[in-house]
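Hello everyone,

My group is preparing for a crystallization screen and wants a predicted model to guide construct design. The compound we'll soak is magnesium ion. Before spending weeks at the bench, it would help to have a computed complex in hand. I've included the protein sequence and the ligand's SMILES below. Output in structure-token form would be ideal because that's what our pipeline reads.
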Amino acid sequence: MNPFLLKGYHSPEYFCDRVEVTRKIINAIENNQDITLYGFRRLGKSALIHHVFHHLQKDYLSIYADIWGTTSIEEFIKELANGIIKSNIFAKRKFSEKLAGFLKSIGASFTIGVDGMPAIEMIYNDRNQAFHNLDEIFGFLNQLKEPVILAVDEFQEIKKYESNAPFEGKMRTITQQCNNVSFLFSGSEFHLLNEIFSTYSKPFYQSTRMLSIDKIDHQEYKEFIQHHFQVAKKNLSETIIDHILEITHRHTYYTQAAMNLLFSQSKLPKTVAEFDLLFKEFVLEKSVFYGELPEQLTRQQFAVVKGFAKSGLVQNPNSADFMEKAKIRSASSMHRIIHSLLEKQIIIKDDNAYRLYDVFLELFLRYTM
Ligand SMILES: Nc1ncnc2c1ncn2[C@@H]1O[C@H](COP(=O)(O)OP(=O)(O)OP(=O)(O)O)[C@@H](O)[C@H]1O
Ligand SMILES: [Mg+2]
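Reply:
Good plan to model first. Here are the tokens for the complex, ready for your pipeline.
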């Protein structure tokens, strides 16, 4: 098996570091504190949630619901119900009476998936029923004998629901009533999460502990990588590892992708130049994703994006050097463009510097300029 996973979570063996934040989350759960976890996309939030579940599986029932792409309370409920039936609550007896009762109580129709587990097809209800269904679901979780952790990943999506205000209020009431359930909300759109949890007039105001995940430490990541290559008796030079950690900015998914690619090679590159050749071919395969970018940006915005691709990390976008690279003349134009690229999530502020959010985009543009 390739030890560098590109999706999901396997076990601690294939999960690097995150010791401190894992400890903090577990401590919070054990002390009945609800948590909001945030961090850039593809940094490893979802994997971290499963890592925490792994550590708590003996004592807790754990439910994971990913609500990415849901647009209404009804879809939220469907994902939540799916999370519940796929959780370890029903794992012992695959299709118990308890489960049938639960599905009936929320008016769900379901199919049995290839894994032998049911998956919710539809929940029959009218709009007014949604809050009632939430009561049913949380009533069910609250009466279970063992404590429950409920992780709702991509929680910021609820901000996009049409009727989000009463829903936020309802969810807040539920979190307060359910003593048996610890809530772990997670997401990547910081301004939306911030609106939910840090706005004085909003129901969730300061109701959870805010924890962030950052990049994995260079040395920790390096040792993790070296360990897995050694186990497989593959000899990878330290210089190449350092180089990869640098060009991927240690943005977890991109680092994993580079290492996964390397690990899959029957003959490993010996030099950084050899690696770059291999990686270039890999990154160029992604051209289909980036073809339309110029049309989504103004000419000037795209010029600045290319400036970022040339520079990598940019501490001061108004420096003469970067203005020259990006072909922008006035500081006020640059200011405006940086603002809109941040808003469009094309660039991010990583430590003290700006860079392109998508590391493959950065490399793709650099290789094709
Ligand atoms: N600590 C880690 N060690 C090794 N691999 C990891 C670690 N954290 C995450 N990964 C891997 O990195 C990739 C991205 O992680 P994950 O999907 O958890 O990120 P995310 O922040 O939830 O992303 P998204 O915002 O797209 O949902 C996955 O392939 C995952 O297996
Ligand atoms: Mg995720």
